[in-house]
Write a structure and sequence with these properties.
Blueprint (H helix, E strand, L loop, with lengths): L1 H46 L1 H12 L2 H13 L6 H7 L5 H31 L6 H27 L4 H10 L4 H26 L4
Helix pairs in contact: 1-6, 1-8, 3-5, 4-8, 5-7, 5-8, 6-7, 6-8
């Protein structure tokens, strides 16, 4: 009995250490990615400002186009990073800019919820024997069973594939209410932090 208890404690310690390492790695790469975005934005504004402004002016005037493009991108696992859209609109006045960022956060959360519901449908439709799907979710399933809210928070704030993690959350029957409570505010806050750094980084050129 003591051996079983000791083995259980050892497994728990191993899982905890793995989770801490996993969280640290994702946060670290998130910070690196954000620093790179800021550097790229500064370089563009310093060396290619006119070209980029011309592109931004042509694109930013059509909210339907940019909104739809962002929606499709988020559904398809972030073909275009959200930061690209923030850079396009950074010349807007502060109030308009952050309103746009807020809308982007809502759109991204909606896309995540669509992926979430897709996962629930897949579970109900009993397609779980699909080999391709099982390979894609293998990396996250074990952690998700025990630490779902942690993985969702990381997906909403770091370079984790957001749509895929939302899909897995739905497949594993994560609570829709809990999902929305975690994803929506965390996603919006993450967008605001990125947007703030993008808009005001060029002040230091």
């Amino acid at each position: 009995m003591q051996i079983i208890k000791t083995q259980g404690n050892k497994n728990k310690t191993t899982e905890d250490n793995f989770l801490k390492k996993y969280v640290f790695q994702k946060i670290f790469w998130s910070i690196i990615a954000l620093i790179l975005v800021v550097i790229i934005n500064i370089l563009i504004n310093k060396y290619a400002e006119n070209y980029f402004n011309d592109f931004a002016q042509k694109v930013s005037g059509n909210y339907m186009l940019t909104g739809f493009s962002f929606f499709i991108s988020e559904i398809l696992i972030g073909i275009f990073p959200a930061e690209l859209f923030m850079m396009i609109y950074q010349s807007k006045v502060t109030s308009d800019y952050f309103l746009i960022v807020f809308v982007l956060g809502i759109i991204s959360s909606l896309c995540g919820f669509i992926a979430f519901m897709g996962g629930r449908y897949l579970k109900l439709a009993k397609f779980s024997s699909m080999i391709l799907f099982k390979k894609k979710i293998k990396e996250y399933c074990a952690l998700f069973v025990k630490y779902g809210w942690v993985i969702l928070t990381l997906a909403a704030t770091t370079p984790l594939p957001f749509a895929m993690v939302c899909f897995i959350a739905g497949y594993l029957k994560f609570s829709p209410v809990t999902f929305l409570k975690i994803v929506v505010p965390v996603r919006i806050v993450r967008f605001f932090i990125s947007a703030f750094l993008i808009k005001y980084s060029i002040d230091y050129i």
